[in-house]
Design brief:
Elements lengths: L39 E6 L20 H14 L4 E9 L14 E5 L2 E6 L16 H15 L5 E5 H15 L3 E4 L4 H10 L4 H8 L1 H14 L2 E4 L2 H7 L11 E3 L14 E2 L2 E5 L5 H7 L9 E5 L8 H10 L1 H6 L1 E5 L11 H16 L6 E2 L6 H13 L3 E4 L8 H8 L4 E4 L4 H8 L2 E4 L4 H13 L1 H18 L2 H19 L16 E6 H5 L3 H14 L3 E6 L4 H11 L6 E4 L4 E4 L4 E2 L1 H7 L5 H9 L4 E3 L10 E5 L7 H10 L4 E6 L3 E6 L4 H11 L7 E5 L5 H4 L4 E4 L16 E3 L4 H12 L6 E3 L7 E3 L2
Parallel strand pairs: 1-2, 1-5, 2-4, 5-6, 6-7, 7-8, 11-12, 11-14, 12-13, 14-15, 15-16, 17-18, 17-26, 18-19, 26-27, 27-28
Antiparallel strand pairs: 3-4, 9-10, 19-20, 20-21, 22-23, 23-25, 24-25, 29-30
């Protein structure tokens, strides 16, 4: 049954007689197919929200905020560096009448050498980030296919936020390249703050999916060669809450500000608080709210989110009569048509704003325009600066504070929360004061004092203009970023797989079956499956996976009468062999060896009560197997926490709820299968993956066609509603045959449409 080559696995075999080989990979620009093109190729991932390079809809919703501006500006800045060949910013393709058609464009140029790449995964419609989690494995497969089509692997993968942290870490493991992570807003921090406000744990989990989010952040920190943060407070007080926090892998690189957009106002020396240029469009929208529009403006600008703390700022203003007499308040809280039609969180915030305005009778004193465009943002800062006003960020916590830099670049002094990034910004720029976001009385007093001391105001304005140009430019960010990227490349070395120039000979689809408990427990069903495979033709490949090490796997195959498969994946995805000669895949071994420390794993788990290292199986280089000795043994979650606290970068899984497998962080059955798909150019929807236990879960998720047999363990129930995972009622190999019929895998192949679960498409 084996058609795989028996020679060196790094050299693909010639096509078999009569087979049509896949087209060879074209050499990448400037170098041979097996070499590296001049300059770095950086793959940046920002999965959620609405991402585009022009007319960004910042503040439209909770998912489209400062992170969108950050990743776009960062991509442009990196592409300007001569040592960078290309930057691809990957996000989600959205086809939905409620958003602009530009978000459905497959690509969008950002600048020379930088572009947005939009890949489809999950439903076509726009989804908030908390609803994207089940669909993220599909994006992993989409990115791997995209990279294969591009004919060049990235040198670095960078994931932004928890969701892209999960996706990026998986992609980097398959490709064997360094992974960088930026969390932006961390789940543990957000969850703790929401609990402080008395919110119910179950409600928080339903709304924010904190368990998945925090686990993804832990996994990203575990995989990352470096974690890029914006402030020291982020590193010391936020990332430090995680088990995989390692100070030596943390790097602070502040983002920059686009100085071509944000500039101070032109002023008349005889009337220093009045702009000489014509009033911008947005000025009319603001002035219509105000009884005395020429007073200084207290500007606050953020999306309508409870964490942005507009309510405390309104309390501070409403309670302070002197402040009300001295200045107007301008709240720019996103864009709205009808508050009643907004998401619940934004609706609550805006309703509270209106109620507080009414409570303190602030009509004629507070402006809250319904809408503003991207070009209005810079004008709003300049209007506030020209009026002699200040910018206030009262957020409960602020991971960085890009708006503070924009205000500083506009000559506008700032008063900002003392929790988060503003500490670093104000220390560098010396252009304002920190605020306690929970003390409304003190907040009002400090704002009034900032407005009344004109000499200090002018000093802060000058300091901000100078500080932002000295410490917060995208050019300096890009230079430091490349130092980190090169260090990560130097640490990992050249371990990526060589991309095969053709598929395994003559194969255009491949069946991946699990030996343990799927094939081994029903001989009659196995015989029927083998007969079906023989009759299917030489275009159908056959791969087997097993948790057993190679000697035991070979013995089981002989006992069951299974011919040598094209591919054999052993020991929980840690070893790959080809053909009858069992040629090992050395590039996979080199790849997963990164950060593997088995002796430290043994030492860490030796202290865990009720857990015994198994020594009744042949030794494997990249897998340690343990077995709980009593019902009171620690849970998998506790074991993972123990390993993380020891700084071990590993994957820990339960096999059928019994054996604990610990493998390198880059190894698992699913990663091994995706590695094979990438290396040999096998499309995921032409791979049928079967399984019965928890060790098969990551292989079954994503764009590959999945079959869960009837005798599966409970760990796989979480996959039941996935459109590309078929649950058969029949056990063992009978279930595989059932799945083959379900997908017509030996025929035209019926591929369920993952974007709409009720639809199916057919590929020849």
């Amino acid at each position: 049954m084996s058609r795989a080559h028996d020679a060196d696995e790094s050299r693909p075999p010639p096509p078999s007689a009569g087979a049509s080989p896949a087209a060879p990979l074209d050499p990448p620009p400037g170098g041979p197919a097996t070499g590296r093109s001049p300059g770095l190729y950086i793959l940046s991932l920002s999965v959620h929200g609405l991402v585009r390079g022009r007319d960004m809809e910042l503040g439209r919703d909770a998912d489209t905020g400062g992170q969108v501006a950050y990743v776009v500006d960062q991509a442009r800045a990196l592409a300007r560096v001569p040592d960078v060949a290309r930057v691809d910013l990957v996000t989600r393709r959205i086809q939905d009448r409620v958003v602009h058609e530009s978000y459905a464009a497959p690509t969008e140029a950002l600048s020379a050498g930088a572009r947005i790449v939009r890949l489809p995964f999950g439903p076509r419609r726009y989804l908030h980030k908390e609803r994207l989690w089940p669909h993220l494995p599909s994006l992993v497969d989409q990115i791997i296919r995209h990279i294969r089509a591009e004919r060049r692997a990235p040198d670095v993968v960078h994931g932004h936020y928890a969701d892209a942290g999960f996706v990026g870490s998986q992609v980097a493991k398959v490709l064997g390249v360094p992974f960088l992570f930026t969390g932006h807003s961390l789940g543990r921090v957000k969850a703790a703050r929401l609990r402080e406000h008395g919110q119910d744990e179950a409600v928080l989990e339903e709304r924010y999916r904190f368990v998945r989010r925090i686990e993804a952040e832990e996994g990203a920190l575990e995989t990352a060669a470096a974690v890029i943060a914006s402030t020291h407070q982020e590193v010391d007080e936020q990332y430090a809450l995680y088990h995989h926090y390692r100070r030596q892998r943390m790097v602070v690189i502040p983002p920059g500000v686009d100085l071509s957009r944000f500039t101070p106002p032109d002023v008349d020396e005889a009337a220093p608080w009045r702009p000489t240029r014509a009033s911008p469009r947005i000025a009319g929208e603001v002035r219509r709210f105000l009884a005395q529009p020429d007073k200084p403006l207290i500007l606050a600008m953020a999306r309508p989110d409870e964490r942005k703390n507009f309510a405390t700022l309104l309390e501070a203003y409403g309670r302070n009569q002197a402040l009300r007499e001295r200045a107007n308040l301008l709240l720019v809280a996103g864009t709205r048509d009808d508050i009643r039609e907004m998401p619940p969180g934004a609706r609550r915030v805006l309703t509270e704003i209106l109620l507080l305005i009414d409570r303190y009778d602030l009509y004629g004193l507070v402006a809250y325009p319904k809408a503003h465009g991207p070009d209005d943002v810079a004008d709003l800062y300049r209007m506030a600066a020209a009026s002699g006003g200040v910018f206030v960020n009262p957020a409960l916590t602020e991971p960085f504070g890009l708006t503070l830099l924009e205000a500083a670049a506009s000559g506008l002094p700032v008063l900002a929360t003392n929790d988060g990034g503003p500490r670093d910004i104000l220390e560098a720029c010396r252009n304002g004061l920190l605020l306690d976001p929970r003390d409304a009385e003190d907040m009002g007093f400090r704002i009034l004092a900032a407005l009344e001391d004109r000499a200090r105001w002018e000093k802060w304005s000058r300091n901000g203009l100078r500080g932002v140009r000295t410490s917060f430019t995208w050019e300096s960010h890009a230079c430091r970023y490349l130092e980190v990227a090169r260090a990560a490349l130097s640490e990992t070395g050249e371990i990526r797989p060589v991309m095969g120039r053709s598929r395994l000979p003559g194969i255009d689809r491949i069946l991946v079956a699990n030996i343990d408990h799927t094939l081994s427990d029903d001989i009659a069903a196995l015989r029927e499956l083998l007969r079906a495979l023989r009759e299917a033709g030489d275009n159908v490949g056959f791969a087997l996976t097993t948790g057993k090490p190679l000697p035991m796997a070979v013995e089981i195959l002989a006992h069951l009468g299974i011919p040598p498969p094209d591919i054999l994946v052993c020991a929980t995805g840690t070893s790959i062999y080809y053909g009858a000669s069992l040629t090992p895949d050395r590039s996979w071994e080199r790849q997963i060896n990164y950060c593997w420390e088995p002796e430290r794993v043994k030492a860490a788990l030796a202290a865990v009560p009720g857990l015994a290292l198994l020594d009744d199986e042949p030794a494997t280089r990249f897998r340690l197997r343990f077995r709980p000795e009593d019902p009171h043994s620690p849970s998998l979650q506790v074991i993972r926490r123990t390993l993380r606290r020891e700084g071990l970068r590993v994957t820990a899984t339960l096999d059928r709820g019994r054996d604990l497998d610990v493998t390198p962080v880059s190894a698992s059955p699913g990663l091994a299968i995706r590695f094979l798909a990438y290396k040999w150019d096998l499309p995921p929807d032409r791979m049928l993956v079967t399984g019965d236990s928890g060790n098969d879960a990551d292989a079954l998720a994503g764009d590959m066609l999945g079959v869960v047999v009837g005798n599966h363990s409970a760990e796989l129930e979480a996959l039941r509603d996935r459109p590309r995972v078929y649950f058969s009622d029949r056990p063992h190999a009978w279930g595989i045959l059932d799945g083959i019929r379900h997908y017509d895998f030996f025929g035209s192949i019926r591929v369920p449409d993952s974007s709409e679960p009720s639809l199916e498409t057919t590929t020849a």
